[in-house]
Amino acid sequence: MIEVIAEILRGPVFIAGETLHCRITFTNKLTEENNSTNHNGTFEKISWASVQLHCQRYVNEQKVNLQQQQHQQISNIKSNESTTTNTDIVPLDSTALIATKGETGQTIYTSKPCVLFCDLKLQPGETQTFNYQETISTQVPPTFRGNYVKYSYKLTIGTQRVNCPTTLIRVPFRVLVIPDLDKYIRQDKAAIASSQPGTKVDNPFVCPSRTEIDSLTTALDALQILSCRTHQNVYNISNNRGRVCRLTLFKNNFKLGEDILGTIDFDHTDVPCVQYTVTLQSEENLNSNYRRKSSQLSNITSFTKQSEFCLSTFQSYLSLSIPLSCTPTFSMDLVSLRWKLHFEFVTSKISRSILPSNSDASSSTTWSTANSIEAESMTWDLPIKILPTNPYFANNVAKVSCTTVTTI
Questions:
Q1: Residue 315 · residue 247 · CB < 8 Å
Q2: Exposure b/e, 343-357, CB count within 10 A at least 16 = b
Q3: Residues 166/160, Cβ–Cβ less than 8 Å
Q4: Which Pfam families does UniProt cross-reference here (predicted)?
Q5: Quick check: is 359 in a domain?
Q6: Residue 12: how many CB atoms within 10 A of its CB?
């Protein structure tokens, strides 16, 4: 019995453009059954093993019409099985690696297959370890589980013992995508080229000893640039009777795991606000060319929410956390994901009550609100952009295991 352990190093979350590292271990396990048969040291032989990355796209066929994409050259691997697991058995007569065998949906990305070995012999109790690495393309969608479309990434290891069927071992992982990362990689390459020996270094901030690109460092630098605070954004929110409040956000681009911070001022306004609610929402938009019905609307999902009573309040503070498990903003030809802050205001139709004043310090004044207030509500949406985060942080909330163990 051969035990195979596939482990993605550093965790299951990666940024597109980063290099994934995996350790694959093959062990000829000693058991009571094969101990009696292998007393003379008979070895086990594995014909071959190969590794490949791939991304599967699953669509809700009741809502998505893919006939518009039939002219494109994409793989469309279908399976008779309704469910898939991390280990699939390929028919005995198959001796080639088909990474997407047993998968449903459409394959929209595959890396080049890498052959780990051929004709591996393992003595009883012997272990062989192989290391695999592959750079994830930057031209891919992020991992996403939407109502219309889902994108799922897996690392697939195909292996076959002599006179046994081919076994596929799958390890799922998550991919985050940074917009325009290629531009920052090209800038990094130019900076490194200018720092090579024999060339004139025009930039004093470039380290001369750096000779290769660290894809993760470049990605994190790009994230810092895209999410840095440039200036405050001030919005005057009004209805047909005048200004309700003034919203101040410190920035409009946020990273996963960050807090959306801002202030809401009710001073010097025309309309008294009784209560407000702010909800962080994602909006999944399906391209109109692929809709089954023209009346299909965007799929809106709500996440964190903040609600405050603000009658006779001059200022309130906004603080909404962005879950690390969310999918950042992205746009593909089939579907796009946008983010927004959804505001709901409850305003009074009467003017703000004036508190009675009392200059006599020896006595007090009691003020109580009315038993009922004639009110109306209004909504307002503010688009924001959510970017990925450091994959080390996202590993803490990853719901997938980066290790798969099976026997062949």
A1: no
A2: bebbbbeeeeeeeee
A3: yes
A4: Rgp1 (PF08737)
A5: no
A6: 23
pLDDT tens-place values along the chain, 408 residues long: 899 999 999 899 999 999 999 999 999 987 665 555 544 567 889 999 999 999 999 999 889 888 765 544 344 434 333 334 454 444 434 445 676 777 788 899 999 999 999 999 999 889 999 999 999 998 899 999 999 999 999 999 999 988 888 899 999 999 999 988 887 777 766 665 565 555 444 555 444 444 445 678 888 888 888 888 777 899 999 998 899 999 999 888 999 999 999 999 998 888 999 999 999 999 999 998 898 888 888 999 999 999 999 888 899 999 999 999 999 999 999 999 999 999 999 998 877 654 455 556 666 666 666 677 788 999 999 999 999 999 999 998 887 788 999 988
- CA dihedral of 299, 305, 311, 312, whole degrees rounded to 10: -120
Segments of 70-220 assigned E as strands: 87-89, 106-110, 114-122, 127-135, 144-145, 149-161, 167-176
- In angstroms, the Cα distances linking 292 to 69, 91, 108, 295 are 14, 37, 22, 9
Predicted model pTM: 0.81
Residue at 361 is within a domain: no
Q: Are 243 and 237 in contact (CB under 8 A)?
A: yes
CA–CA distance, 75 with 79 (Å, rounded to integer): 13
The phi, psi pair for 394, rounded to 5°, reads -65, -25
Q: What's the full length of the chain, in residues?
A: 408
Residue 365: inside a domain, yes or no? no
Please state, in angstroms and rounded to a whole number, the distance separating the CA atoms of residues 254 and 322: 8
Q: Which two tokens stand for residue 169?
A: 């071992």
Letter for the amino acid at 17? G
Do 172 and 197 belong to one domain? no
Which DSSP letter does residue 289 get?
A: G
Q: What is the DSSP letter of 75?
A: B
CATH number of residue 50's parent domain? 2.60.40.640
Q: Do 262 and 335 fall within a single domain?
A: yes
Q: Which domain holds residue 287?
A: 233-351+373-387
Q: Tokens 């004639």 map to which residue?
A: 374
Query: Rounded CA gap, 304 and 21, in Å?
Result: 34
Task: With beta carbons less than 8 A apart as the criterion, state whether 4 and 157 touch.
Answer: yes
Type of residue found at 266: F
CA-based end-to-end distance of the chain: 6
Strands 253-255 and 375-387: parallel
Q: Is 71 exposed, middle or buried (0-12, 13-18, 19+ CB in 10 A)?
A: exposed
